[in-house]
Write a structure and sequence with these properties.
Number of domains of chain A: 3
Largest interface: A-B, 53 and 49 residues
CATH class of the largest domain in chain B: Mainly Alpha
Number of strands of chain A: 12
Number of helices of chain B: 8
Order of helices and strands of chain A: HHHHHEEEEEEEEEEEHHE
Mean pLDDT of chain B: 82
Distance between the termini of chain A: 50 Å
CATH topology of the largest domain in chain B: Rna Polymerase Sigma Factor, Chain: A
Radius of gyration of chain A: 28 Å
Structural class of chain A: alpha+beta
CATH architecture of the largest domain in chain B: Orthogonal Bundle
Low-confidence stretches of chain B: none
Strand order of the largest sheet of chain A: 1-2-5-4-3-12
Shape of chain A: globular
Helix content of chain A: 40-55%
Largest sheet of chain A: 6 strands, antiparallel, barrel
Radius of gyration of chain B: 21 Å
Structural class of chain B: mainly alpha
Order of helices and strands of chain B: HHHHHHHH
Number of strands of chain B: 0
CATH class of the largest domain in chain A: Mainly Beta
CATH architecture of the largest domain in chain A: Beta Barrel
Number of helices of chain A: 7
CATH topology of the largest domain in chain A: Thrombin, subunit H
Strand content of chain B: under 5%
Strand content of chain A: 15-25%
Largest sheet of chain B: none
Oligomer: heterodimer
Low-confidence stretches of chain A: 82-90, 117-153
Chain lengths: 370, 188
Amino acid sequence: MEDKELIEIIERYLTDDMSSQERTQFETLRKNTPEIDQMVVEHKLFLDHMQSYAHRRSFAKLTNQTFNKLLAAGEWMTNDTISTKTKVIQLWNKYKRVTAIAASVGGFIALTTTVLVMSLSPSLNGNQLLQLSNDIEVIKKKQQVQGHLINEVKSKVPENAKMLSGGSGFLIDTKGFIVTNTHVLKGNGAIVINSEGQELHANIIYSDYSSDLALLKIDDEDFKAPKNIPFIIRKKMTDLGEEIFTLGYPRKDNDIVYGKGYLSAQTGYNGDSNSYQIQISANPGSSGAPLFNDKGEIIGIINTRQKQAEGVAFAIKSTKIFDLIEMVNEKENKKAGKIKLSKNNIANLSNRKSQVSNLKSYIYSIRSYN
Amino acid sequence: MKAELNEQALLKGLAGNDSKAVETLYKSHFNSIQHFVLNNNGSFDDARDVFQEAMITLYEKVQSNSFVLSCKIKTYLFSICKHLWLKRLHQLGKYSGPLSSQEETISVEQDMREFDKKEASFEIMHRALNSLGEPCKSLLEGYYLNKKGMQELAADFGYTNADNAKNQKYKCLIRLKKLFFAQYNIGE
């Protein structure tokens, strides 16, 4: 089938312009062919954007027309450099009655002003705080650079060790438990590196080849445990087309990389029901990187990408993390302690930029050696 | 009770692109926004822009299925305008202390984030469409935005038949999607 015809069919499918028989046939085709499913999802996303573009454009036009019509009819005064005098007169005329009443209860005004100032101040603080946090960010960066230098001198990897594999992982418990992929851990030993470049020793607690999920625990006196984990792990399924993002360490220089995309299928490669298919064009991130939804909840763990189709990757569903934790907790690993997951999703409260800078310190680069 | 019903009817009209509803909203609320912006370092044109953005925010809000307006339209529009105007003053470096207003406001952070997100993809689509050139731009706008049929478009653009127009539309669509997603996938 040619692409042109395919797009035409997809458009008919999405606009409900199909006989029920044709629809069933197409749905079967879609189910069995990930590439076509991917195209359907992508095209729907595109058409949705086109639709809201059209809506906003025509509405903006309508408001312009309405505004100009009322303006021509003399509805408003248009001079904006009203001198203080006329401004006062205008205000006086408009609020004559109000002022009269208010003047008689002057105390009330004083009170209102206090309340007003108090109620307005927080919004001001919010904006200033944001700028301040940016400043802190700059200082942090500087410290990072220094941290790097020190760490290069004193690596935690044993001298004769052979590096075998690497990837990403993320903290799920303040005690230092990190989830990653089993295939990231090809050796017996592991170190993790945080977003500031600090290396830490970690023990491999559990690794499961069938689910490709593994658990590490940081075992290092230099580890500064965070007060809490700012995200929750999602128990429910995630919807098709939902926006997602990831943070991981795919680069050799160990800089954290942000990537954005969307969920393109509820099943993974060859219909694997334990995985999602995702579209992340910017950077798929390396194995073990967490996949977040818009609210900052973890919905999956990136583990593979399709070689032939660019931007198509797969992620293990977050529900599998619960299975892993249950397994580990049941074994009552006394030395490592029980895993407790975060119940609060703090990341949700902020915008994407601060979401990312907030989340990155919980995401680690992982190296495994023998 | 009656006022509440009127507000509901207004919002319904707004959702359906009813010009009467838009006119009523402008007539009853623009004045106070104009006063607010003029009293806080702005011009008439600023007030016009800010109010239009607030109207678009409200319009897009009433279009969504999960729509609830938990306050009066006046309070909502004013809160959005205040937020937008504060932001603009910050950008211009003109901000000097709390804004003077005596209106009641509600928190609109969530809605503003939604608006910003939509604004970003609107801009991307706008740029993508404009960098397509003609006849691609008009052809796609005709088909997807103005919902014209292929037959009609073929006649408009001087194609000998609908199939030729379809071919052209497909080529244009592929280019537009490429342009759009190249920007869209980069991120914020």
